[in-house]
Amino acid sequence: MAHAAHPQTPMTIDDIRALMAEDMSAVDRLIQDRLRSDVVLINQLGAYIINSGGKRLRPLQVLLAARACGYEGEAHRELAAVVEFIHTATLLHDDVVDSSSRRRGKATANELWGNQASVLVGDFLYSRAFEMMVSVGRMPVMEIMARTTNTIAEGEVMQLLNVNEPDTTEENYLRVIYCKTATLFEAAAQLGGVLADQPEPVCQGLAEYGRQLGTAFQLVDDALDYTGDAAATGKNVGDDLAEGKPTMPLIHAMRQGSPEQAATIRKAIEQGGRDDIDAILEAIETTGAITYTRALAEQAVEKAIASLGCLPESPYRTSMESLAKFSVERDY
């Protein structure tokens, strides 16, 4: 049943972390425990990337959604760890595909240990995640996660096809965002409802929340790539451009800019590189591309919050609403 919207006092990210501290520390312990292997390199590389300062937003989704649905058990912690392992595996593989040398302000695993080790430890994390899922013993959980990992892989391939492709449309790009990023947020929130044996409309409402939150999150990342402070984001301005990735700010600037501006951006996407970064930042500025990208993110957040109408009021639901707002207000 739908619950009325309510003017709740928003919670800060610190409030949310305090509310979920017990669950999150249990998840951290599980992650350390399940990461262990007899193979030393897996321990070293796995611990390096898992402990390299991620926001842990995806596991937080699982925990909050389960608690918001009144779940009393402990399997939500196992699934939160599963989601973090899958996310980490995609990062390991991503950095190899993109030949990235920095992530979150630190050297990437592939920079330190090489591509082969990164790919193989990513595979280990995927397979360990599925082992953990089986231990939960719920077929719907397996179905959601199998579909999700498949969709992520499709998104990776679609993004590969978009690299150095200046004719990528907004629609095509949003599809890539869904597959690569939003689908794991969608699964994370949905799992909480499934674990708590909620009816289908509630599980679908949670899935919609996660999907819209993930979309907003990635769009803000795209905007920060051209406006962020490298010290805060752990990336350099124009990293996406250097890799020839046509993200939303570039797609908008090409569409709205002068023919010269469009030609400059097109060339940069086709060739990859920061040679014309100043002209491109100017085009992004004059076409309002960042404002446009952030507006899309804010629309997604509004949809995310609206879809939580399927849940009763609780500090957990308020946390989910506040987390959605945080995703667009952050500067890192």
UniProtKB/TrEMBL annotation:
Magnesium in keyword set: yes
Name this polypeptide is given: Octaprenyl diphosphate synthase
Keyword Lipid metabolism part of the UniProt annotation: no
GO molecular function list: all-trans-octaprenyl-diphosphate synthase activity; metal ion binding
Reaction catalysis annotation: 5 isopentenyl diphosphate + (2E,6E)-farnesyl diphosphate = all-trans-octaprenyl diphosphate + 5 diphosphate
CDD domains with a match to the protein in the record: Trans_IPPS_HT
Top class in the EC scheme: transferase
Keywords: Magnesium, Metal-binding, Transferase
This enzyme's EC code(s): 2.5.1.90
Family: Belongs to the FPP/GGPP synthase family.
Named cofactor requirement(s): Mg(2+)
UniProt-listed GO biological process terms: isoprenoid biosynthetic process
Transmembrane segments: none
Function: Supplies octaprenyl diphosphate, the precursor for the side chain of the isoprenoid quinones ubiquinone and menaquinone.
Pfam families: polyprenyl_synt (PF00348)
Cross-referenced Gene3D superfamilies: Farnesyl Diphosphate Synthase
Source organism of this protein record: Aquisalimonas asiatica
InterPro entries: Isoprenoid_synthase_dom_sf, Polyprenyl_synt, Polyprenyl_synt_CS
